[in-house]
Write a structure and sequence with these properties.
The complex is a heterodimer of chains A (116) and B (112).
Chain A: E1 4-5, E2 10-14, E3 19-21, E4 24-25, E5 32-39, E6 46-52, E7 60-61, E8 64-69, E9 74-79, E10 88-96, E11 105-106, E12 110-115
Parallel strand pairs in A: 2-12
Antiparallel strand pairs in A: 1-4, 3-9, 5-6, 5-10, 7-8, 8-9, 10-11, 10-12
Chain B: E1 5-7, E2 10-13, E3 19-24, E4 31-38, E5 42-50, E6 53-56, E7 65-71, E8 74-79, E9 88-95, E10 102-103, E11 107-111
Parallel strand pairs in B: 2-11
Antiparallel strand pairs in B: 1-3, 3-8, 4-5, 4-9, 5-6, 7-8, 9-10, 9-11
The chains are: A mainly beta (116), B mainly beta (112).
Chain lengths: 116, 112
């Protein structure tokens, strides 16, 4: 079973508008972390934002915020005031924190295109 | 601060040749990860090390792949012999404890 599901292969948004990228996850662990990474066309992977399963408040980092709904097991990324430079592939990832496992499991990604 | 360093950035080789990819993690990080990214399979974890010890190599495709981490500042991923289906971007990442992983720029491997 997929642990991380990103149902939107591609998204378009108008410059300066907000956009939400969906991510749902599957885990039986109580302790886990959720991550979003950005991969522009140049190929590097850039960490954007992190949400811990016990964090009571939604994480925010500048124009990025994470809409964390624990009961629904969703961790959607919200980008406000989109810019042309936001055009990239976005990956949601999860790490289960119980035990010694340290690896991230990635979703299939969403290709975001910001239109001028 | 130097990030994760990978070399080479690009590698083109012929089928059957040995390929060695190199990674220098961020100083002070105690975990190192090797990922492979392809269009078909997305990002896959191949192997990760914690304190230089391989912890999970279940993602390594087959015996042609091997990885080592002789010390805290260096790791290699070797493919011998290489095959065209190994063509991909190989990322190395590192972190400390449960914090976010920092990725290197990747090595784009093409096997002809």
């Amino acid at each position: 079973a997929q642990k991380i599901t990103q149902t939107q292969p591609g998204m378009f948004v108008q410059e300066k508008e907000a956009v939400t990228l969906d991510c749902t996850y599957d885990t039986s662990d109580q302790s886990y972390g959720l991550f979003w990474y950005k991969q522009p066309s140049s190929g590097e992977m850039i960490f954007l934002i992190y949400q811990g399963s016990y964090d009571e408040q939604n994480a925010t980092e500048g124009r990025y915020s994470l809409n964390f709904q624990k009961a629904r097991k969703s961790a959607n990324l919200v980008i406000s005031a989109s810019q042309l430079g936001d055009s990239a592939m976005y990956f949601c990832a999860m790490r289960e924190l119980s035990g010694s496992a340290r690896q991230l499991t990635f979703g299939s990604g969403t290709q975001l295109t910001v239109l001028p | 601060d130097a990030g994760v360093i990978q070399s080479p950035r690009h590698e083109v080789t012929e089928m059957g040749q040995e390929v060695t990819l190199r990674c220098k993690p961020i100083s002070g990080h105690n975990s190192l990860f090797w990922y492979r990214q392809t269009m078909m399979r997305g990002l896959e974890l191949l192997i990760y090390f914690n304190n230089n010890v391989p912890i999970d190599d279940s993602g390594m495709p087959e015996d042609r792949f091997s990885a080592k981490m002789p010390n805290a500042s260096f790791s290699t991923l070797k493919i011998q012999p290489s095959e065209p289906r190994d063509s991909a971007v190989y990322f190395c990442a590192s972190n400390r404890d449960h914090n976010e992983q920092f990725f290197g720029p990747g090595t784009r491997l093409t096997v002809l």
